[in-house]
Amino acid sequence: MNEAPLMPGLYVVATPIGNLGDITLRALDVLKRVDLIAAEDTRVTGQLLATLGISKPLLSVREHNERQGAEKLAAKIAAGAAVAYVSDAGTPAISDPGAVLVRALREAGLPVIPVPGASAVTAALSVAGFAPGPWLFAGFLPPKQKARRDAILALKHQPAVLVFYEAPHRVRETLVDLAVTLGGERRICIARELTKQFEETACMRLDETAGWLGASAYREKGEFVLLVEGAAQAESGMADAERMLRVLAEELPASQAAKIAAKLTGRKKSELYDLLVQEHD
Question: CA-to-CA distance for 222 and 214, rounded, in angstroms?
Answer without folding.
Answer: 15
